[in-house]
Recover the amino acids of this structure.
């Protein structure tokens, strides 16, 4: 595995309650003890980059541990793209021989109801040698290679992502409070859990259970006729006497026919079950269960539609050879599960399928103690065309920084690549709105960097193969905000505009060595509109560090848009460092 350098390391796990735990690492040992629930942890002092190391935790030995930089990679399917899809495009993957970069994929766990303490089983660390590299996802591989080649420090990619996931599922309930439709009613959920719990499991079947305060039931008969009107589970108990001569003998239990399903116990021992209403209930009583004197029969009857019944004119008896005892007449009963009691709570939980936080609960929260260098976030396709993305992204960053107790935790954001067919005329675009939200957040939230990627996509594939260029641009952002290098990490960023008669003049930040086009041709993908809000392709000219936009038929322009499309691949504004300008608009029209 790979652990984060220059940071205190929390090593945690589970053991038997109060078990003594010894952690040995780097020539030192630390003693601790599991608590009453079996939880334990130790804190290791910050370590320098290097390795490999060995860690011993009691009898467990973990070999080949490197110390370096760990990146949490999350998002949806483009973060999940398997590297095996890229072997033809990048044949060098087949001969990869880098043991200094490592990869771990968190197995899927979506739990809307509550946070989880552990990730699911199945995850495994892989290095990037040829025999293991095909287990990787593509972006993680190229980013790790780029980071290692530059820093010469081991790199660990901790990938926790899920294809098709929306950003809301990666944010905690506490951070989604301003969006009521995404919040579960916790009181209703806890109440539903309680009323949907079978309170008789394991206890009411026992021979010595006190059922003196249970109600009476005359068997056979319908549950409804004797006051049990709810769907659910009802326990019925009856004690009988067995003669000493039949103690421990094999017998047979005849319980007529019931509606719907049943499980039967004698003296707390399981005898048999039937999963539906029609078959006659004839159960063998294994040798050794019956005892001389008092024996208690318990029936756990489940009724799914308020039609629970012990059918009349059937045999209800216990028989051991020549001994027989009838089982009709008075029984004791108590309801263990009332399915109808949850109806009102379920109505308050109608948003269960659309509530947020499920992936945060299952795939981010369990990682909270794992020290990381920063986050790589590639997501947005599932939210295209929706509002609130900028706010969601802002909340996600705040949420994860709180979880890792690091208000400066770096976030490297992938702006959505180009996708779908190009439009001949300027048009509205849900993908452009997501790109705008991503750009906005990268501007207003410190310690974030945006990789602009609208030249890396494929119009007919939402999962483009060019993950290598994206990784290079992401790491350029890391060099700036994580490693504090003096480097131009961004293309031109729109700053402001003024209107001068029939022209709109645009100014930019992060100019680097100045503005230019990436092909030496005229600027493309600039659109202009007047108060009619109808956009036309515009003439755009670079003048020093500004761009002048106009159209011969628009005398009173009001707004300009650049690369505002699902697929703006022809947009060609860059700085002299070769980095693309982020798409933008000067208006806020809907």
């Amino acid at each position: 595995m790979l652990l984060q350098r220059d940071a205190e390391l929390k090593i945690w796990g589970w053991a038997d309650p109060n078990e003594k735990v010894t952690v040995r690492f780097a020539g030192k040992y630390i003693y601790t003890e599991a608590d009453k629930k079996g939880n334990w942890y130790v804190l290791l002092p910050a370590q320098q980059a290097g390795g490999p190391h060995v860690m011993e935790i009691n009898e467990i030995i973990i070999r080949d541990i490197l110390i370096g930089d760990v990146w949490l990679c999350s998002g949806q399917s483009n973060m999940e793209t398997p590297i095996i899809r890229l072997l033809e495009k990048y044949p060098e993957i087949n001969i990869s021989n880098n043991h200094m970069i490592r990869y771990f994929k968190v197995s899927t766990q979506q739990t809307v109801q509550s946070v989880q303490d552990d990730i699911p089983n199945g995850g495994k660390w892989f290095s990037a040698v040829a025999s293991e590299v095909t287990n990787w996802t593509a972006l993680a591989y190229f980013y790790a290679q780029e980071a290692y080649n530059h820093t010469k420090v081991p790199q660990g990619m901790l990938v926790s992502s899920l294809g098709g996931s929306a950003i809301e599922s990666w944010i905690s309930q506490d951070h989604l409070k301003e969006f009521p439709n995404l919040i579960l009613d916790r009181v209703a959920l806890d109440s539903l859990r309680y009323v949907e719990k079978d309170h008789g499991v394991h206890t009411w079947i026992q021979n010595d259970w006190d059922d003196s305060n249970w109600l009476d039931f005359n068997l056979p008969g319908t549950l409804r006729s004797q006051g049990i009107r709810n769907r659910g589970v009802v326990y019925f108990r009856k004690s009988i006497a067995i003669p000493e001569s039949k103690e421990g003998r094999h017998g047979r239990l005849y319980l007529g026919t019931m509606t719907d399903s049943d499980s039967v116990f004698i003296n707390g021992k399981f005898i048999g079950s039937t999963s539906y209403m029609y078959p006659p209930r004839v159960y063998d009583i294994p040798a050794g269960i019956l005892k001389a004197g008092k024996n208690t029969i318990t029936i756990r009857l489940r009724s799914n539609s308020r039609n629970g019944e012990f059918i009349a004119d059937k045999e209800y008896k216990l028989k051991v050879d020549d001994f027989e005892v009838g089982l009709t007449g008075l029984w004791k009963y108590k309801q263990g599960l009332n399915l109808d009691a949850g109806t009102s709570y379920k109505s308050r939980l109608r948003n269960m399928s659309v509530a947020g936080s499920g992936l945060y609960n299952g795939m981010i929260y369990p990682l909270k103690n794992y020290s990381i260098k920063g986050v790589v976030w590639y997501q947005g396709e599932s939210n295209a065309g929706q509002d609130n993305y900028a706010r969601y992204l802002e909340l996600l960053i705040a949420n994860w920084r709180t979880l890792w107790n690091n208000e400066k935790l770096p976030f490297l954001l992938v702006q959505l690549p180009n996708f779908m067919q190009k439009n001949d005329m300027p048009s509205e675009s849900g993908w452009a709105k997501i790109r705008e939200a991503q750009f906005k957040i990268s501007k207003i939230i410190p310690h974030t960097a945006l990789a602009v990627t609208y030249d890396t996509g494929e119009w007919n594939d939402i999962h483009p193969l060019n993950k290598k260029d994206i990784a290079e641009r992401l790491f350029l952002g890391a060099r700036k905000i994580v490693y504090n290098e003096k480097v131009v990490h961004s293309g031109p960023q729109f700053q402001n505009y003024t209107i001068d008669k029939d022209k709109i003049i645009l100014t930019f930040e992060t100019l680097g060595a100045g503005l230019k086009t990436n092909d030496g041709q005229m600027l493309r993908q600039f659109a202009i509109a007047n108060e009619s809000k109808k956009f036309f392709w515009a003439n755009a000219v670079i003048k020093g560090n500004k761009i002048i936009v106009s159209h011969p038929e628009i005398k009173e322009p009001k707004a300009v848009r650049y690369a505002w499309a699902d697929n703006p691949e022809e947009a060609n504004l860059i700085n002299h460092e070769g980095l693309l300008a982020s798409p933008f608009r000067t208006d806020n029209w809907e």
Observations:
- The radius of gyration is 33 Å.
- The chain is about 15% helix and 35% strand.
- The longest strand covers residues 60-75.
- The helical segments are 77-80, 138-151, 186-195, 343-347, 358-364, 389-403, 430-444, 467-481.
